[in-house]
Write a structure and sequence with these properties.
The chain contains 6 helices and 14 strands. It is an alpha+beta fold and 283 residues long. A 7-stranded mixed β-sheet has the order 2-3-12-9-14-7-6. Strands 1-11-10-13-8 form a 5-stranded mixed β-sheet, with no helix packed on it. It has a two-stranded antiparallel ribbon with strand order 4-5. α1 links the parallel β2 and β3. It binds fe (ii) ion. Fe (ii) ion binds next to loops.
């Protein structure tokens, strides 16, 4: 497998971004997109704990993809203050992302602006993600098939990306947008086709924004405990249609089959992923 560095750029005009990155769906780290946001100065651990530490939050453990009743659900509760103190003190696999602080603290949305670098912003407000040092966001692409602008705060995240041409080597589970490969510690015995994959990588630092074009796979490791924010922009009508199709597959097929036959369904998905990759290796 080969991973190449993602370009880091500053001072891009709207026209330059659209022509060089948005239209060709090419990832880029925009180092100055979030500079003007109050959020990049104001949203420290101490600030969030002082103002929102009392809120109860649903935490996700490393068994998020385990088949059965907790499949893709939270089963741990603590306060935001307890969680933020934990992730800034020591490594932990716990993450927080099904619960959006911005739903509970709408005043924070005034600290972030939709950039004028492109159009089609999806949400009235963005979405936040938190993770402890060493915690992992497994390989997936976003189910709604929109473009993502992912800004990180204070600490560091290692992010690996692959485009859709790499699908034959990535062991995607059918009826999902997920894979269980780890591109940073590849297991070539279990996933031999992964050797042929070519991707991109970067270490995202404070205030930097990674443009993840629609349907690009991403695998993320929090190098330190920290938090990020995503803005989303539509990828045209076709992107929205693809998103609806993926969402239907996930909620109708994948979740129903998990409820009916948890472990058998997971094994079937893994076998199919192996079969598809074996076919790719024969080519
Ligand atoms: Fe994602």
């Amino acid at each position: 497998m080969e991973l190449f560095p993602i370009e880091k750029r500053a001072g891009l005009s709207r026209e330059e971004f659209i022509e060089q990155y948005l239209k060709p769906k090419k990832p880029v780290v925009l180092t100055d997109l979030a500079w003007q946001w109050p959020a990049t100065q104001k949203w420290t651990f101490d600030f969030l704990i002082e103002h929102y530490g009392h809120l109860e939050v649903p935490i996700i453990g490393p068994d998020y993809h385990k088949p059965g009743p907790t499949y893709m659900k939270s089963n741990i509760k603590m306060t935001l203050g307890e969680y933020l103190n934990l992730i800034r003190k020591e490594p932990t696999k716990y993450r927080l992302f099904l619960w959006n602080i911005l739903d509970h603290a709408k005043e924070l949305t005034q600290d972030v602006h939709n950039p004028d670098i492109c159009d089609g912003w999806v949400d009235a407000y963005p979405f936040m993600f938190f993770g402890g040092a060493g915690s992992v966001t497994g390989m997936h692409y976003d189910i709604d098939c929109s473009h993502v602008f992912h800004t990180h705060f204070w600490t560091r995240k290692h992010i690996v990306l692959f485009d859709q041409t790499q699908n034959p080597y990535l062991y995607r589970h059918p009826f999902t947008v997920q894979s269980h490969v780890n591109p940073l510690q590849p297991d070539y015995e279990k996933y031999p086709a992964l050797k042929r994959a070519t991707g991109l990588e970067t270490i995202l630092q404070h205030g930097e924004t990674l443009f993840i074009p629609s349907m690009w796979w991403h695998y993320i490791v929090y190098l330190d405990g920290g938090f990020s924010l995503s803005l989303r922009a539509r990828d045209g009508l076709m992107g929205s249609a693809r998103g609806l199709f993926h969402i239907a597959q996930h909620f109708v097929v994948d979740k129903s089959m998990n409820a009916l036959m948890a472990k058998t369904w997971k094994s079937w998905k893994e076998q199919q992923a192996q079969k598809n990759a074996a076919m790719a290796l024969e080519v």
